[in-house]
Write a structure and sequence with these properties.
Length: 285
């Protein structure tokens, strides 16, 4: 009984704040709200038609798709590779793990500013390589509208891969040591053991890692603001930045609510399959 009473504030917060505010936002996305919410100005799907007819929003969705796909693949590959190397019981494991995980402790703003300096052609990597003798070397992604999203991707991977490594390492440490002993007795190479035995056994870990990566991708904002502020032009716009600017700078709440509702839909697209795999599979078992 005491536990149920103690859970009341959490339940109240979840129902009223999260669910209530979400429904409130979705409702007002069908209105013509400007500076203040205007529930009486019903416009139907006009905000969504205007949203998907705006080139800035389309560019932001395209950028998010590129960033998201590359981030998922690279974070999983790099994180699992680092975890597999650390799982071999190497020397100074704790020190190496701490160094790799350290970027995750930084805020996205700090990470974005650091990589803005690193990728600055006058101060960063390009300048260092040219001073080393390769005078024709060019690497300036943040000022190139065709590849600017990959400059932001580099910073995101640098910060997030360490955390995925820790998640994967926890999964690897949960694998029974007898499996490795049996594979060595059978003469199975380590890489085959990972691909055909270990990775299938770690399916729940990979699903959890994907959900964590996806949740960070959808709300990416700080990195873009710190590195490019959406530039050059609107080449590095992302949905979260579009929502913030429409709601607080353009004073167009209806359009901002419509954009945030589309972001909510993308979150549900991620969470529903995860919930099915996580709980539906267990129920069948």
């Amino acid at each position: 009984m005491t536990a149920k009473i103690a859970s009341i504030p959490m339940v109240f917060t979840a129902v009223v704040v999260f669910i209530g505010c979400t429904l409130w936002t979705v409702y007002h996305s069908f209105t013509g709200s400007r500076l203040l919410p205007a529930p009486d100005k019903w416009v139907g799907l006009d905000q969504y038609e205007r949203l998907w007819g705006t080139s800035r929003w389309l560019i932001s969705v395209e950028n998010l798709a590129i960033y998201g796909f590359c981030s998922m693949i690279l974070s999983l590959v790099i994180g699992f590779t680092l975890a597999a190397l650390l799982d071999r019981k190497i020397r100074f494991e704790n020190t190496i793990r701490t160094i790799i995980l350290y970027p995750f402790a930084l805020s996205f703003i700090v990470t974005g500013l650091a990589w803005q300096w690193i990728l600055n052609p006058s101060l960063g990597l390009q300048n260092v390589v040219r001073e080393a003798g390769w005078t024709s070397f060019t690497f300036d992604p943040l000022n190139n509208p065709d590849i600017v999203i990959f400059g932001i991707l580099i910073a995101g991977i640098w910060q997030g891969s360490g955390f995925i490594m820790v998640v994967m390492l926890a999964g690897l440490r949960g694998i029974d040591e007898d499996i490795w002993k049996a594979s060595r007795v059978e003469g199975i190479p380590a890489w085959k053991t990972y691909i055909f035995i270990i990775i299938p056994m770690m399916k729940p870990v990979f699903v959890t890692a994907l959900v964590l990566i996806a949740s960070g991708i959808i709300k990416v904002y700080d990195l873009v603001v710190a590195q490019t502020s959406g530039g050059p032009g609107i080449a590095s716009e992302v949905p979260a930045k579009y929502v913030i600017e429409k709601m607080f700078q353009s004073q167009n709440l209806g359009q901002g609510f419509a954009a945030s509702t589309m972001m909510l839909v993308s979150v549900l697209i991620v969470l529903i399959p995860w919930a099915y795999l996580e709980f539906g599979g267990k129920k069948r078992d």
